[in-house]
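Whether sequence alone determines local backbone shape is best considered at the level of individual chains. In the encoding step, the backbone of a single protein was reduced to a row of integers, each denoting a local shape. For completeness, the protein is quoted in full, as a sequence line and a line of structure tokens.
***
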Amino acid sequence: MHSKVWTDMFVLALPVAEKILRPIVVYFFLVIGLRLAGKRELAQLNPFDLVVLLTLSNTVQNAIIGDDNSVTGGIVGAATLLLVNYLVVRFLFRHEKLDRLVEGEATVLIEHGRILKDKLAKEVLSLEELEAAAHKQGFGDLGDVDHATLDPSGTISFTGKRPAPEEARHQEVLERLDHLTRDIATLRLRVAPPAS
């Protein structure tokens, strides 16, 4: 009994080369598939996209591990995925043009306060989804947004039309410090003893 437990846990049911090759094939398929599906899939803006991403991992699980449920097989598959990702990320870091081709470019969704509906349509984003993303970042209304960009990672970045409250307070403090500095300089000139 004990030997069967150990055999089931650690003896590979598939050749090691196949255990390494399967995750590599699935990895590149998913990278290409997600790139073709668009940035929206990475952003997980609605429940349907989230369901697709969650079930995608379960769908490709058997393709990665095959008929092997051993711990060793899982470790070999996971280590292969981590190694391939490590190598791909470093390779793309050194090759900027290829990185842009794989990851794609950022898409401007709002420019100078004007919503670019053609860009929203291209990215299959509704106005309501854009507004919901703006709410998550603290904007009450899309009218408060000067600039919005959908990054290749799927993140939407917003810039407000007017400075944020923290920025306004910071600017006010700087202006007061400048005013105090001038007042102190003026007082020093009045108090300074006359030159002999």
